[in-house]
UniProtKB/TrEMBL annotation:
PROSITE patterns: KS3_2
Protein name: Beta-ketoacyl synthase N-terminal-like domain-containing protein
SMART domains noted in UniProt: PKS_KS
Coiled-coil annotated residue ranges, if any: none
Keyword field contains 4Fe-4S: no
Organism classification: Bacteria, Bacillati, Actinomycetota, Actinomycetes, Streptosporangiales
Species name: Streptosporangium vulgare
Residues in Ketosynthase family 3 (KS3) domain copies: 3-382
Keywords: Transferase
Amino acid sequence: MASRPVVITGLGVICAIGRDPTEFWLRLMSGQGGVTPVDDEAFAVFTARYAGQVPAGWIAEQLADADADLDRTAQLALIAARQAVGQAGLSADDVEADRFGLVLGKCQATPDAAGRYQPMHRTGDVVAGRLGMRGPRILVSTACAAGGNAVGLAKDKILTGEADVVLAGGVDPLLFGTYAGFAGLQALSTGPCAPYSRSDGLNLGEGAAFLLLEPLDRALARGATPLAEVAGYGLSADAYHATAPDPTGRGGASAVRRALADAGMSTDDVSYVSGHGTGTPANDAMEAKVMRAVFGDRAPRVPTSSIKSFVGHTLGAAGAVEAVASVLALQHGMAPPTIGFDTDSVTDLDFVPNVARRMPIETVVSNNYAFGGNNVALALTVPGGEREYEEFPDRPVVISGLGPVSGLGTGIAELAEAIAEGRQAVGRSPSLEGRTFAPRSLWRHMNHLSRMAIAASRLAWEDAGIKLPRAALDNVGLIFATAAGSVESTGGFDESVAVDPNKPAVLSFSNVVLNATGGAVCQTLGLRGPTTTICNGEASASIALDCAVEMIRAGKADVVLVVAADEATATAAAGTTITPYDRDRTGEAPGSAAVAILVESAEHCAERGGRAYARILGTGHAGTAEQDERESIRRSLAGLPAEGAGLVVGAGTGGRYDADEASVLLELVPDGLLTTSVGQTGDCQAASGAMNLAVAALAIRDGIAPALHGLERPYAGEVESYVRKPHLSEAVGQALVLTAAAGSVRGAVLLGAMA
């Protein structure tokens, strides 16, 4: 029996060919593209100056006065989000705020009104705040695959019961630095691009698109009109190269096959393919191989087109924009054309050249590929009627390997020793001198973040004692979690663009996308399973773990590697000490770390004779605002039986939210001793969340936990309510772990001892 049907009931889009779905579709059908010369004088330094731009007037006419101070990225996203909610006819009475989720795809860190980089999740926080959404909130950053990836993760949130309605989409503006990077790679066409024929380069674009997802039965009950069904989705990793796609098409083909398997369909069911179609020689040649590999002899009879020929490459928005086009194709029975197609090109495939085609369309596969080797495929179908379905499976999941890399040491043995001795390493960067965790030809060209993440991944794999044949690695998942990606690469690239935009540091550019480090891990370890990257600040690791559990429960993988890594943007003074939760020892200190956690089904771990640290009993996440932190902690814990936890590893950083957290936790978990890893490592952003998960698992198995040395005047409770000595006097049956991205997401994970 199939899983619960999830449908799309609302669409929103703003891009170079339309300020809403109606105008967007009319332009697609008329063959009227929106790629034009860039109207910003700053871009005159480039030889290739064509892009898909959104007129400023289109933005201004759809915004309220209260939105005028928002940055351009947030404005684009808010316009498309409101359109999708409006078309779905969704009101505040139709969904509880706590059950209304958001999954947003972005490729680039975007500037605020003052030109400073914002946290990646900031755009999603703005959209959620303006629309009153307090449910699960995820920022996915798998570069140019992010928009499609977001739709798949949104479906998961509905199937697991975490949300009743989820808004999924993508957004990215046209940025000078990104343009310089693609120009430096010589990937831009000097005129409007011609995917699948001339293939002489791509055009960049900008825009936003959203799709509103909800269960079919719920949509019909409230009188909504289903526009399409999200029948399935597939993710994969190329494990091949930082920027170039695997020329064999293996990764892209794997994503399509996984999407169809998820949907319970065969290749014969596919009517039309919405291709990635960037117009670069490498991409277009690879996609042709994907078509032939997936569809075999039928490939020439499966119409495939690229709407990037209309709008340019909208990066993180591309998958969502193309998903909107796919839904409209299903509705109208029309395949959008590939415009600019040179009909003299020799090809056996049907790329719907230049003119839209009326045809029966029951199922669309929408494909996207990205730097870092991320691939995603969506299987969208004409919605069916209500039918019986199976509940989301409940497979037990365990943590079986830990790989910490921080100033405290490298590997679980060194971390355990540092905790037992009470050592502090605030501000101390991990040292990997003299150690190589990848082939030297790769290792010497890697930035520090990738080296840390790869080292952590290898160590977790070794700690788990897992040995799999090469073929099995195709089904091992990888979820990378980071707040900011590589500071080293971003800084180096920005500096090079400032000196000469025509000579950017292209090696740094390939590592500016936040999923690049996850791609490097996949390439080094040979992992080609379902892969994604989560960028929700300090809450990223718990969200990544949540996604890993969902993959395993759904049967999409038996083993998933969760890797979190961040490096400090500033350096803490030598000898800096902080004591979280103490009134007199406040102050935040940055740190750098990477932590890998190997997660697998309990059955798989037992069959191979593995020794797990802990069971994952449950997770919870709640969207929040800075003025709502206490209530958000309560909401993140609402579905977890955490009151009996013997240990609580909090998100405390020594900052202004420690008092709120301590007060609520001591109230809700009165018998749990409170601690955090941050006092010993500094605030390592996403890696601190993963470190907290690691020390909780270590406490359950080995009975040690970070002691809060120097704690004398806690914000809440008595000192006896906190961990004061690393060797715990009682065995820990359950441990609660908190993560927090202030003003964005609060997360909670409950771990339990192995039976």
